Input
Amino acid sequence: MKLKDPDKIQIIYTATLKLVKNNGLTGLNMAAIGKEAKLGMGTVYVYFKSKEELINSLFKRLKGLNTNRIYSVIKPNAPFKVNMKELYDNYIKNRIDYFEEHFFVEQCSNSHFLDPESRKLDEAAFHGVYALLDRGKKELLIKELDNALITSHMMGSANEIVTMCMKTNTKINKSFLDQAFTLCWDSIKR
Amino acid sequence: MKLKDPDKIQIIYTATLKLVKNNGLTGLNMAAIGKEAKLGMGTVYVYFKSKEELINSLFKRLKGLNTNRIYSVIKPNAPFKVNMKELYDNYIKNRIDYFEEHFFVEQCSNSHFLDPESRKLDEAAFHGVYALLDRGKKELLIKELDNALITSHMMGSANEIVTMCMKTNTKINKSFLDQAFTLCWDSIKR
DNA sequence: TTTTTAATGGAATAAATATTCTGTTATATT
DNA sequence: AATATAACAGAATATTTATTCCATTAAAAA
Output
């Protein structure tokens, strides 16, 4: 008998991400996925039992990968500002390097496709950041503001800056990154 | 003969906005719009010749209304910081009061539904803000940074803060609004 | 008041799209 | 090498969803 090709799932995922990037989640259909992945429809259904399962499966995978990639740079021992800068740079880098992935996740979050399990993943992940911010407050380095407010402010800013740069084809170099971080730092520093 | 009911278009728009808020643009279909608007399918097609036309028509209408509502508070004669604060407060207020509308516009922007004409509207609208920022630089009140960077930073922050407040059911009062603006002001002030 | 015309509702149809089915092929296992 | 099993492609089918059609109704015009 023939075994499942361990690469096929990733091939299907990659095709899906590309299609959603180009046409949005509203434009996604199974025939297009098959064609983009150079697979027959039947093959796609060997690996995923439905369109919904495919979307949720990819969503969960990306959520896990992204959370890990982004927040693993938090180091409780590094100086606070240094750690914030590293976290910020890493966050922006990830948003750019995995643009398709983040776009897909956001599209899914606002769609009717997600099952309850996928929806739960949307919540947590901030604990590490909140702990870091608490340390900054204790060390009297940043303002005494609600963590959710600070986090929304910084992440919202970062996301929009990346989106703008992608739209205008602006390459993000070190100097630009420093300027962007300084905006955020100046806003929260004591 | 019977004349078209001038209210029907708005009724259909309202139904569409509610449905998209609840199920996302991916979950929108014409039967649901008819049902939500308490109209037969045929009636919907009297006012719009297709689903695509309905979506684009609503998108264009909202773009116009929103741009006007948000940026009309820019007053070249008011002191710079006062004007920035007024613009910020007004922006946040609009994002909250017209949450469904903004959500719909964003969903459309990332979909395959928009025609070229709709897509163009996505661009301009910032001229007034850019002029205001230029004045702030000339008066040496804010940093010499790219307008697109400043705008992305402030609008991204504001959008995400509103989204967070909606998700967590946080009521935005004056004190909260002042805190949020201070974050932005401290980030750009000289 | 009568006539005429277009709106209206909802069933019927068309079109798009997801899913299943079938014959074929590749490859693990014997 | 032979066999069995499951992957594979793509056509066939089912399902969903957009659109049209038609009988009825409302109201403007005569």
Chain B has a mean pLDDT of 96.
